[in-house]
Amino acid sequence: MSDIKQKYIDAGQAHIFKYWDTLTVTQQDKFIKQLSKIPNPKDFISDVSNAISYSSNISSSKEFTQLPETSFSSTISSTKEQLNEWERKGLELIRQGKVGIILMAGGQGTRLGSDSPKGCYNVGLPSNKSLFQIQIERIIRLETLAGGKNLLTLYIMTSGPTFESTEEFFKINSYFGFNKSQIVFFNQGTLPAVNLDGTKLLLGKDKSSLVESPDGNGGLYKALSDHKILQDFKTKGIEHIHMYCIDNILVKVGDPIFIGYSASNNFDTATKVVRKNDSNEKVGLIVLDKEANVPCVIEYSEISKELSEARDPIDDSLLKLRAANIVNHYYNVEFLQKMIPIWIQSRKYLPYHIAKKKIGCIDIKTGDYIKPTIDNNGIKLEQFIFDVFPSVELCKFGCLEVDREDEFSPLKNAPGAARDTPAMCREKCLERSTRWIKANGGILATPDALVEVSPLVSYGGEGLSDIVSGHVYEDLSVIS
Predict the structure, then answer these.
(1) What are phi and psi of 55, to 5 degrees?
(2) Which of 396, 270, 412, 290 lies closest to 330 in space, CA to CA?
(3) Does one domain contain both 362 and 454?
(4) Tens digit of pLDDT for each residue in 186-236?
(5) What is the CATH number of the domain that holds 291?
(6) What is the mean pLDDT of residues 158-163?
(7) Looking at 392, 412, 432, which one is the last position of a domain?
(8) Does some domain include residue 18?
(9) What is the reaction catalyzed (predicted)?
């Protein structure tokens, strides 16, 4: 205990022990346990300082361009034969039990006006299904397409605020018909918050803990190691992973085309992207760092106006840099086993990113708990999952462009916002299934009618012809 305290004092953090003597033994033990999660506080404060410096001086000297053809393919322009080949490969790997799925579900629905995890949210589909139910049912249907049952394990990464409520939601809904033994819940980690100049840790309301927040989607890698998920992959014989985020209502969970594309090309890591059409769209881009000859992601704030508006040299109707990141990735498990210990030991691979926030904490001078309402008073830290991309050899990195209307509609903002709202997600989901109905001979009672197709009936528009051909569907019908 004294060794841990001294490390923090030597790192300039003596203030967090101001109320130490007023704490109970139990509180002290709990506090020390929390502090022990950071083995070297001096290094942590140094890493925070570097993150602040980076955010203030984003380099504009790097030259970015498109990924080479060897690392880029598109489902939009690929032949039907090629897509079928990738799909067959993916389904075979699923049938062999070699595919696992990671669902990033640590987000809360606070921006949506909900106290529940975002995955519990109902966007207003006629079936009233939550995001969790929609995605679980897609997995069930995918197993059917692969020709078996109990083929896929779903690993759900939650956060501290969502862990218990997520497990309870699955339990009270009988796991939505999925085998309970095929679901593994695990928590992402946390990072301490600091003051605005990054020099002081913030003390929590109880004076016996640091203020912490989830460590971002980049915390996945450490969580996989800490919770022995990597070992579970090995035990189960899982060789390929599809990772995605809960908020995308159109996501093709465990997409066999994506798995087949990645595995056929022997990629260590691959990512799905959608086409950026508007140069002003605030979205990260998958690009090539020309100097280092490595793949990376650049945020919209890191790209010049000139480069963001540059047109493709071959097709002037397209932007030059247009591979929009949707946080939908493939990983080769053997590669993860090798690289995760390296990634989590160095800020070179997983640097901290800062977000200035209004953070409730103890005012050390007065001992009062403060919760700012106007000005930011601190920094929350997070890590980004794609920061490890430059550590992947270019020849082992893949990027698959998919149709935005078919695969991407994120739930980000509350009703009434300009974009990415529940109503927009609902509309995009219904529009896609209605296209499937029309393509398979179904008839709409009115030209603007929208029809919902249960994921248990069709994963991607398949198997509908015998069900819908010649049938007339009223607006907001549900095919289940």
Answers:
(1) -65, -25
(2) 270
(3) no
(4) 999 999 999 999 999 999 999 999 999 999 999 999 999 999 999 999 999
(5) 3.90.550.10
(6) 91
(7) 412
(8) no
(9) N-acetyl-alpha-D-glucosamine 1-phosphate + UTP + H(+) = UDP-N-acetyl-alpha-D-glucosamine + diphosphate
